[in-house]
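call fold target=MBL fold metallo-hydrolase
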Amino acid sequence: MRPGWRESDVTDMPMIGTHIDTFDGMERVPGGPGARLRWARTRATDFRAAFASTGTPDSVDTCELVTLPYPTKFGLFRASTAVAPFLSITNRMLVIRWRESDGRQRVLLFEPSDFELGRKTPYFAALGARVPSPLQSLVLKEHSTVLDHLSRLGIAPEDVDYLLFDHLHTQDLRRWVGTTAPQEDLGGGVTPRFPNARVIVQSDELAAMADLHPLQQPWYQAGTFKDIRPDAFLALTGGRILGPGVAVIPTPGHVFGNQTLVLNTSTGIWASSENAIAAECLTPEHSRLPGLARWARTWQQEVILNANSLENTAEQYNSLVLEKTLVDRSQVDERFLQFFPSSELTAAWTHPGTAPTFSHRAIHHRR
């Protein structure tokens, strides 16, 4: 089902923040993906210093939402030799607050997944139908909801300005931004829980969702966007500085319109996306996960992708190297980088051989 907006709606949407021209033109780099890899590495190096000079946000809080099973062959691509067919990932929301130059406070939610509705994503719905209910309780754990976390942090839903996802796989936004027509499965009309929030998204992804390719269909709930008004979105073309130490940059590959949150904090620069599911996937030579270090050494691949969708694998590799070049090293263990997976590999006794060597679990920042 096609979403209710037209292509012209996407291109006419208002912009936000300050445009980042550093990453413009990747698709026009002469040569193949190898040339674009070198370009991405150089541009990330150039952007590091400029981004650090923008300052830092007031705070970054990390909120656990849900831990769920995920196929090992997706999360660790072809590198893992673990016998377990599934591993566990924990989806977390970041709450970022900053002040504009005029003193107005801004609140951005990164990955505020409505995981109850997310279960209806075709791939996960089919997977859930095959797993007996008693087993589901062993491998799926709901930690807390988006709204409960905000209440704990003292943030009213109407004070949220922006919702941001690295991409819109599994997302159903109807309860967050409301609909223009009654929704039978939700019991009628839907009043937005975040009445003043706009969804920041790359225009490439919105355009793709209007006419999904068969390889994309298992991962999107495009039909749920049909009755969402176009002005609920802020569609970007490229990167933006959103506030002091807060940026979103294009990282295409996992999906055509993939994007990465970049933060400058008291410990340096972080990047967060789902291009990889563990920090060690950016430095696999230090990984104790079965197969990863050997795979990287054998095939001279410096990163291990999260590859459930293969829209453009070489470009996703390049994007992950861009993220790797951009961030600082962990102050906890310098072998690993401050890459924070939006869904992070989590140890589970039910999935032997998939316990991470190192986990961030959270980003903590107060200015």
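return ok
The radius of gyration is 19 Å. The CA atoms of residues 216 and 309 lie 7 Å apart.
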